[in-house]
Here is the input.
Amino acid sequence: MQMKSHRIALLFNANKIFDREIIAGVAAYLGSTRAAWDLFLEEDFRLRLSGLESWHGDGIIADFDDPAVAAALSRSRIPVVAVGGSYADDSSYPDGVPYVATDNFKLIKLARDHLIEAGLRNFAMFSLPEAQENRWAQEREKAFRTLMAEDKMEAQVYRGLGTSAAAWDEAVEQQIQWLHSLPKPVGIIAVTDARARQLMQACIIAGIEVPEQVALIGIDNDPLARMLTRIPLSSVIQGAQEMGRTAAQLLDQMLHGARLQGTRVLVPPIGINIQTSTRHEAAKHPHVMRARHFIRQYACQGIKTHQVAEYVGISRSSLESYFRQELDCSVHDVILRFKLDAATEMLAQGDRTISDVALSCGFTSVQYMHAVFKRELGCTPRAYQDKAKDQAKDQAKAGREQACA
Here is the structure.
């Protein structure tokens, strides 16, 4: 007996990591069930919104953070499941549509709790300009303001300018002015990784040490943002794949007659990918702080101790003395530690060869990286990579079992 196939449209922007994770969650649901769906996914779905009412499909899962999508589907004749951000005000949710939301309050609380645990006492938020398409960002602002008010603290929120080539220089100048105005050290939550990356660049241009002076955390855990920053970026991991699975499950139920109007599911964040940008340690000496800031940016480019000393503006022997006093190690030890951290991160991703990792992380040879791994971690780079692959497989298996439960 042949199963009925349903024609399902996914209205998401596949250029964004959050949307791609939602789509991956839909695919994971289909892979774990016997549902037969023919999926329709436009490269830019917004070009087809005007003719969507004439599409002869069976169901739609759509990004309701986009006001144009919400408006286009307000009178849909076929089942629709909405996906988007959560709202503090219940009246902000669309009427009569099942809604799967990322929990904006918990995203911000998790980020702020992490900054508190890192030892920060001053906090700020880097948001986006107020606009209908940025409602989710404004909801994250509300969450931040609420948390700060609970602790009787002033909420420092900066929206800045939108992203456009014509305004890049002005945007960076304004970001630097805002950064200089903040009490230091400060923990800053950016509403996305893309926004965090912009602020990271402003810090580097202005010579503001990250994370000693500014500890920075984004949201999305976007691999591209990590690759484009000199200093590895900490980020809150949204439960976007779980949102996609949940949305697909709700739509599947609707296709079989379930009436789910008004159903609302809030999906909490998974956790935090903790990287260098929030590993805040209060340095006692400004020379050590400045040196570590330089090392974070250029350790993998093969810098030497004398180059760090030149950047700081003191003699090599003086810098070594400060490092021994404050960190109980040499400048070379710190450079090597950053190179090792970068290598373990690349090996864990599993898509790079050992020789490629050695070259990318500034090791003079594969043999030298091998020796460093054996000395510092007690294993070879290959063994570390194999262990990381096994852990990833175990996590994926656990995710599939959870989806089937």
The domain at 286-384 is CATH 1.10.10.60 (Arc Repressor Mutant, subunit A). The chain has 15 helices and twelve strands. The longest helix spans residues 381-404.
